[in-house]
């Protein structure tokens, strides 16, 4: 590749939060003894409903913050599975969602990126209080340059207005930013917006049949610093 066509260095890496930095199954897993054998089903249905509700609320122009959506999704998941979640258990599940476990490689990866001179930020559907609580609990706040929430624009990803938050924060074109997500639909949306995207395919899922392809696919975040610090690879 000639110098004139080489991509410009990456200014910042933007991370989806849930499923990318934080393990969304952790809340149900921590209370698995009380939930019973269906805890994994609850975690899965809860997450699926949560995502679907963000899309539907955006399409209906009926925005509610992510904590509200998460609570509504939990109630629907419990009803779908025929689980009688007591008010106390429901409250503790919601509290645990505020302090989800990070994936083990996350702190070292964020530190490595910053060591390469690449800024780091969360760009998430999560509510500001949820994102700050999770980041503080995981010890990530000092490794992040910012935490960006779609609550600012009152529409959920994959709306362009949500992705635009990263460009506004870092004052640059989307092509200078890398967006990282474990959600294939999120990667597709960010790629269509103009970001360089990396799909962290933690579950070895098939590719989405959507426009917008990632520049790379990883099975964890471990390889990300080496990838994005080399302009020839991104």
SSE map:
Elements (H helix, E strand, L loop, with lengths): L11 E4 L10 H5 L1 H4 L3 H22 L5 H16 L5 H11 L8 H10 L3 E6 L3 H11 L7 E4 L10 H11 L6 E5 L2 H10 L2 E5 L15 E3 L5 H5 L6
Parallel strand pairs: 1-2, 1-4, 2-3, 4-5, 5-6
Helix pairs in contact: 3-4
Number of strands: 6
Alpha-beta content class: alpha/beta
Total helices: the number is: 10
Q: Output the strand order for the largest sheet.
A: 3-2-1-4-5-6
The termini sit apart by 12 Å
Order of helices and strands: EHHHHHHEHEHEHEEH
The parts where pLDDT drops under 50 for at least 5 residues are 1-5
Largest sheet entry: 6 strands, parallel
Anisotropy-based shape? globular
CATH superfamily of the largest domain: HAD superfamily/HAD-like
- Helix content range of the residues, please? 40-55%
CATH topology of the largest domain: Rossmann fold
């Amino acid at each position: 590749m000639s110098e004139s066509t080489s991509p410009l260095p990456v200014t910042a890496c933007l991370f989806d939060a849930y499923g990318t930095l934080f393990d969304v199954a952790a809340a149900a897993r921590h209370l698995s003894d009380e939930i019973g054998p269906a805890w994994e089903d609850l975690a899965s249905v809860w997450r699926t409903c949560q995502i679907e509700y963000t899309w539907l609320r955006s399409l209906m122009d009926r925005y509610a913050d992510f904590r509200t959506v998460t609570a509504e999704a939990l109630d629907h998941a419990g009803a779908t599975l025929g689980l009688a979640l007591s008010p106390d258990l429901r409250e503790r599940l919601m509290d645990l969602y505020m302090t989800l476990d990070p994936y083990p490689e996350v702190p070292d990866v964020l530190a490595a990126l910053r060591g390469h001179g690449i800024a780091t930020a969360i760009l998430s559907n999560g509510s500001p209080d949820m994102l700050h609580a999770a980041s503080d609990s995981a010890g990530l706040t000092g490794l992040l340059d910012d935490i960006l929430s779609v609550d600012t624009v009152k529409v959920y990803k994959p709306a362009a207005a949500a992705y635009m938050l990263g460009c506004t924060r870092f004052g640059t074109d989307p092509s200078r930013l890398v967006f990282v997500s474990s959600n294939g639909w999120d990667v597709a949306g960010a790629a269509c917006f103009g970001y360089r995207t990396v799909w962290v395919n933690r579950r070895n899922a098939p590719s989405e049949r959507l426009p917008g392809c990632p520049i790379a696919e990883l099975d964890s975040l471990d390889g990300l610093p080496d990838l994005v610090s080399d302009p020839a690879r991104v």
